[in-house]
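Researcher: I'd like a candidate sequence for this fold, 297 residues long. If you have to choose between options at a position, lean toward the conservative one.
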C-alpha cells in the first residue's frame, strides 16, 4: 500500500469515526450534552497520551513545557486556545441531543469558506478563479439565510467563526502541532470533571438505571481518540491539498447523521444549503484539478 493510499484510508476513517461519534451521543441518554462532553475529554486525553508516546511525539509536549518557563505569553495563549477548542468539542456533543445537529453541520459546511476568507485577510492569500466563484456561490446561500431568518443560528456561527480564530491563534503562538493540542485538552480537564462527575448529584442514579453506560462511556473515549489518531496520521502521508480536500467528507456525514436523528431540512432552507454545497463542490473540483496537474508535471 502506497503512502498516499494509506493517507486517504486514514483520512476517510477519521471522518467516518467523527460521524459515528456525532451519532453515538444519542446512545448515551439520559446523560446531557455537558456530561458527555466531560466524559469525552476525560477519556480522550489518556488515549491521546498513549498515542503520542507510542509514535514518538511526546517531545512536542516537553518542548511546550520548556517554552512555558521562558515565554510568559504562553500562559495567556494556552488558556484562550483551550477555551476555543473546548467550546467546539462541547457543541459537537451537545448539538445532536438538542435538535441543533443540522445547525452544526451547516457550520462545518461553511468552515472551509471562512478559512479561505481568513487566509485572504490574515495571510494575504490570493483567491483563484474557482475560489472566487465558490465564494460568490456561498455568498448567495449566506444572503438567502439572512433574508429567510434574519441571521444564522448561533451554533453555525460558533463553528464557522470559532475554528479560524483557533487556528490563527495556534499558528501565531507556534503551538499548532500535536503538543499544543495536548495542552489545550489538558486545560479543559477541570471543567470536564465538573461536567462529568462533580456537577451532578444524580450520576450514581443514572448509571444504576442504565448500566450499559459503564461500557458506552469508555467506548466514547476510544472512538474519539481513534478518530484523532487517524486524522493526525493521515496528515503525514498526504500533501496539503489532498488532505484539505478530504476534510469535506466530514460535514457531508454530519448532515446524514442529523437526518438519521430525525431532523429534516425545511423546504425554505434548500436555497441556503444548495449554494454552499455548490461552493464546496467547486473547491473540491479545483483541488482535483491541481492534483492532476501536479501528477502530470
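Model: Candidate sequence:
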Amino acid at each position: 500500500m502506497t503512502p498516499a493510499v494509506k493517507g486517504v484510508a486514514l483520512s476517510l476513517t477519521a471522518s467516518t469515526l467523527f460521524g459515528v461519534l456525532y451519532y453515538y451521543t444519542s446512545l448515551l441518554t439520559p446523560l446531557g450534552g455537558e456530561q458527555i462532553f466531560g466524559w469525552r475529554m476525560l477519556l480522550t486525553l489518556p488515549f491521546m497520551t498513549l498515542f503520542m508516546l507510542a509514535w514518538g511525539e511526546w517531545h512536542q509536549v516537553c518542548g511546550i513545557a520548556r517554552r512555558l518557563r521562558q515565554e510568559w505569553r504562553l500562559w495567556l495563549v494556552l488558556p484562550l486556545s483551550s477555551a476555543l477548542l473546548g467550546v467546539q468539542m462541547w457543541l459537537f456533543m451537545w448539538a445532536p441531543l438538542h435538535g441543533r445537529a443540522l445547525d452544526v453541520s451547516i457550520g462545518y459546511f461553511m468552515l472551509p469558506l471562512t478559512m479561505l476568507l481568513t487566509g485572504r485577510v490574515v495571510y494575504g492569500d490570493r483567491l483563484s478563479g474557482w475560489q472566487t466563484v465558490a465564494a460568490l456561490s456561498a455568498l448567495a446561500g449566506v444572503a438567502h439565510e439572512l433574508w429567510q431568518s434574519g441571521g444564522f443560528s448561533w451554533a453555525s456561527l460558533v463553528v464557522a467563526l470559532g475554528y479560524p480564530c483557533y487556528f490563527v491563534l495556534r499558528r501565531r503562538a507556534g503551538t499548532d502541532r500535536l503538543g499544543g493540542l495536548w495542552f489545550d485538552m489538558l486545560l479543559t480537564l477541570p471543567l470536564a470533571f465538573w461536567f462529568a462527575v462533580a456537577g451532578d448529584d444524580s450520576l450514581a442514579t443514572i448509571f444504576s438505571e442504565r448500566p450499559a453506560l459503564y461500557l458506552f462511556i469508555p467506548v466514547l473515549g476510544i472512538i474519539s481518540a481513534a478518530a484523532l489518531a487517524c486524522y493526525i496520521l493521515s496528515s503525514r502521508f498526504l500533501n496539503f491539498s489532498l488532505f484539505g480536500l478530504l476534510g469535506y467528507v466530514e460535514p457531508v456525514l454530519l448532515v446524514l447523521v442529523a437526518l438519521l436523528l430525525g431532523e429534516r431540512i425545511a423546504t425554505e432552507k434548500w436555497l441556503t444549503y444548495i449554494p454552499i454545497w455548490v461552493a464546496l463542490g467547486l473547491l473540491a473540483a479545483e483541488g482535483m484539478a491541481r492534483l492532476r496537474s501536479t501528477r502530470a508535471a
